[in-house]
């Protein structure tokens, strides 16, 4: 049986991030992707021109429809714009016997806000506690915990602050720091530092969504968290290296890079 992975996230009309990136990632990694749309955005390579969240009852109905009939081996969350959506999705995940990868999306690659300030407390107290892995970038760490990271050495403090809210594992993404792309995965007792060369490529739209979906896909296939995150990091590094221009702004990573890299990949 092909594992089933469910993304609960917003739609990116430009196809580089959100639900679209999640489903492409899942296909590339050999799992069956399913979706719960939480919001619709008007979005392209230049930014987000508009966003409309779906009613909580529509989100809940989509989730129950999929989980009750098909079942899931992993869940991934992305854009949850309001406190009401955050709390409803957290409640649904708590009732689901599957690992959950929580990407606490706060802003888009272009700096557009995708989470209401009033929803932050719900992220801290409702969503993070149900996470198997939480995957904040440094801006999201600051938004959620108040901890600002300016160097690799400060990533431990950021991880501790995130873990204090209850996820089993925290993956602190250090992509905004200079030098190599360094991430820290920890459960508070063991640490895994993941390093990759920084590619000279500005077409990185969708990296966060892609990484979280890749982790969820690997977890659904039965990998332990450290191995799932390492495999996801390797996939995303290749996707960033193959990122391509699209429109007049920031292009997307290439979710299908392995298909074009030859059978040895």
UniProtKB/TrEMBL annotation:
Keywords: ATP-binding, Kinase, Nucleotide-binding, Thiamine biosynthesis, Transferase
Gene Ontology CC annotations of this record: cytosol
Reaction equation(s) it catalyzes: 4-amino-5-hydroxymethyl-2-methylpyrimidine + ATP = 4-amino-2-methyl-5-(phosphooxymethyl)pyrimidine + ADP + H(+); 4-amino-2-methyl-5-(phosphooxymethyl)pyrimidine + ATP = 4-amino-2-methyl-5-(diphosphooxymethyl)pyrimidine + ADP
Domain Pyridoxamine kinase/Phosphomethylpyrimidine kinase span(s) in chain numbering: 12-254
Any GO MF annotation of the entry: phosphomethylpyrimidine kinase activity
Pfam families for the chain: Phos_pyr_kin
Keyword Kinase among record annotations: yes
Pathway the protein takes part in: Cofactor biosynthesis; thiamine diphosphate biosynthesis; 4-amino-2-methyl-5-diphosphomethylpyrimidine from 5-amino-1-(5-phospho-D-ribosyl)imidazole: step 3/3
Keyword Nucleotide-binding listed: yes
GO biological process: thiamine biosynthetic process; thiamine diphosphate biosynthetic process
Xref: InterPro entries: HMP/HMP-P_kinase_dom, PM/HMP-P_kinase-1, Ribokinase-like
Superkingdom per UniProt: Bacteria
Function: Catalyzes the phosphorylation of hydroxymethylpyrimidine phosphate (HMP-P) to HMP-PP, and of HMP to HMP-P.
Entries under NCBIfam families matching the protein: HMP-P_kinase
Record protein name field: Hydroxymethylpyrimidine/phosphomethylpyrimidine kinase
Organism whose genome encodes this protein: Streptomyces qaidamensis
């Amino acid at each position: 049986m092909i594992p089933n992975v469910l993304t609960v996230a917003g739609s990116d009309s430009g196809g580089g991030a959100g639900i679209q990136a999640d489903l492409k990632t899942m296909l590339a990694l050999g799992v069956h992707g399913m979706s719960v749309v939480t919001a619709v955005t008007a979005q392209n390579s230049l930014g987000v021109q508009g966003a409309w969240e779906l009613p909580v009852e529509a989100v809940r109905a989509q989730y129950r429809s999929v989980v009750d009939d098909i079942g899931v081996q992993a869940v991934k969350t992305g854009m949850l714009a309001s406190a009401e959506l955050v709390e409803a999705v957290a409640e649904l995940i708590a009732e689901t016997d599957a690992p959950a990868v929580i990407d606490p999306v706060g802003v888009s690659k272009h700096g557009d806000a995708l989470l209401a300030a009033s929803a932050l407390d719900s992220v801290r107290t409702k969503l993070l506690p149900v996470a198997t892995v939480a995957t904040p970038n440094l801006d999201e760490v600051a938004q959620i915990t108040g901890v600002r990271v300016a160097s690799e050495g400060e990533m431990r403090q950021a991880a501790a602050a995130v873990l204090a809210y209850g996820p089993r594992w925290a993956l602190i993404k250090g992509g905004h720091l200079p030098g190599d792309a360094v991430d820290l995965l920890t459960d508070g007792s063991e640490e895994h530092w993941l390093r990759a060369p920084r590619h000279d490529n500005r077409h990185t739209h969708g990296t966060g969504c892609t990484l979280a979906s890749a982790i969820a896909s690997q977890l659904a296939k039965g990998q332990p968290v450290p191995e799932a995150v390492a495999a996801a990091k390797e996939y995303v590094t290749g996707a960033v290296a193959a990122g391509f221009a699209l429109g007049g702004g920031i292009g997307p990573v290439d979710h299908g890079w392995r298909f074009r890299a030859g059978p040895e990949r």
